[in-house]
Specification:
Layout: H1 9-15, H2 20-28, H3 40-52, E1 54-56, H4 57-64, H5 68-80, E2 84-87, E3 91-94
Antiparallel strand pairs: 1-3, 2-3
Length: 95
């Protein structure tokens, strides 16, 4: 690090090597999801949400033929992992 003249926000971005291109390219670049660490029901939930984009909890239960209580447990776990998002109206979508 060396002393530089600060004339505005651009100088700070350059000094800290911040740029919007770098931030967006690392965050959105080909996310690959490793499903091996999830149980069978969680994998099924992720697969159905990837296919359908957004579903209500009842629709997911019907597609997967599982109980609502078991499904709610797995949905909460996946939400804590940051993989899905709970929407108003008991709807879920892939994050």
């Amino acid at each position: 690090m060396k002393a530089t003249i600060y004339t505005g926000p651009k100088d700070l971005e350059e000094a800290l090597s911040w740029s919007k291109e770098n931030l967006t390219s690392t965050n959105t670049k080909n996310k690959v999801l490793d499903l091996t660490k999830y149980n069978e029901e969680e994998r099924s939930i992720l697969n159905i949400l990837m296919e359908k984009k957004e579903l209500e909890i009842d629709q997911i239960a019907i597609f997967l033929n599982v109980s609502i209580s078991s499904l709610a447990y797995n949905l909460l776990n996946l939400e804590f992992e940051g993989l899905i998002k709970s929407m108003p109206g008991k709807r879920y979508k892939i994050f």
